[in-house]
Design a protein that fits this description.
Blueprint: E1 3-7, H1 17-33, E2 35-41, H2 51-64, E3 70-73, H3 78-90, E4 94-97, H4 101-107, E5 134-137, E6 144-148, E7 152-156, H5 158-161, E8 165-168, H6 176-186, E9 191-195, H7 202-215, E10 224-228, H8 248-253, H9 258-268, H10 280-288
Parallel strand pairs: 1-2, 2-3, 9-10
Antiparallel strand pairs: 4-5, 5-8, 6-7
Helix pairs in contact: 1-9, 1-10, 6-7
Length: 291
């Protein structure tokens, strides 16, 4: 096999059309480049994750015909995350932050995307503090150059995009940025295909991944990145579980066939001029031929 790719939904709701488009891109890339497909359930958000959604993800993928080669779920990997955290802490790269959400909003500037750029207020706190706190990673203040297979070249400085970012939140949950980086390294992911809404996470994830590899004295083999376009709602916003996007499960209950749903998603994503029934293999082929 040429490498490994992952489809990594979070079980905070049922899959919707946006997830289906992302899955099609992942399976299309796997076919194009001969990749092992890994299904990773990213249930790092323990407050919103539900077992019913985990089961629903696997059931919906099976109903649609998607097959994968391996499976993991983040809630079973706490010891791995803790080991990496301990190593980074010993390198002086992790520190506690007592700033509340209200303080973060009030005391830090925001970038063009509205994201808070943390100014490092707590960088010099001692490690052993009793009050509620998150744990932050010290980003490297430098421009990171990286290339996207579809969108081209980027040059971004995480210190200017987000500043030091959390690896563990005030509730003790691992963050997306940290768990995803650890998993991608440990699971030897060579190709990362995901939506454009996650594109601005790339430079900070490269920085964190490089730091992890340096800490463990291992080479960092940067993956190939491909960020795909999104399906949006009538107002132009991306589909979201928080906004109660119509789910695949609802479509299934309403009697739509997998082929009709695939055709509708391809139409909404601009791959077909009309919404006609399409087999999974034809849908994968159509997207694979587009990049």
């Amino acid at each position: 096999m040429a490498g490994k790719i992952r489809f990594a939904p979070s079980p905070t709701g049922y899959l919707h059309e946006g997830h289906l488009l992302s899955a099609l891109y992942v399976w299309a890339a796997a076919k194009k480049w001969g990749l092992h497909i890994h299904l990773r359930i990213e249930d790092h958000d323990r407050g919103r994750s539900r077992q019913a959604y985990v089961d629903g993800i696997r059931e919906d993928l099976e109903w649609l015909g998607f097959e994968y080669d391996s499976f993991s779920i983040q809630s079973e990997r706490n010891e791995i995350y803790q080991g990496v955290l301990d190593k980074l802490t010993s390198q002086g790269l992790i520190y506690p932050c007592t700033c509340s959400r209200k303080q973060l909003e009030a005391e830090n500037p925001k970038g063009d995307t509205g994201e808070i750029i943390y100014q490092g207020k707590c960088r010099n706190l001692c490690q052993n503090i009793a009050e509620p706190h998150s744990l932050r990673f010290k980003v490297t203040d430098k421009v990171i150059q990286w290339s996207d297979y579809r969108l081209g070249d980027f040059a971004e400085n995480p210190a200017m995009q987000c500043g030091d970012f959390p690896v563990k939140d005030r509730e003790g949950c691992w963050t997306y940025q940290f768990a995803a980086c650890v998993d991608d390294l440990e699971q030897e992911i060579t190709h990362i295909v995901r939506g454009e809404d996650i594109r601005n996470s790339t430079a900070r994830q490269i920085d964190l991944s490089q730091a992890i590899c340096n800490a463990f004295v291992k080479p960092y083999n940067r993956p190939l990145y491909l960020h795909h376009g999104l399906i949006v709602d009538p107002t132009g916003k991306k589909l979201s579980k928080r906004e109660l996007a119509h789910s695949i499960r609802q479509d299934k209950q309403e009697g739509i066939s997998p082929e009709a749903l695939l055709g509708r998603v391809l139409f909404k994503a601009g791959f077909q001029s009309v919404s006609h029934v399409t087999s999974l293999q034809d849908a994968i082929d159509k997207i694979s031929n587009s990049f």
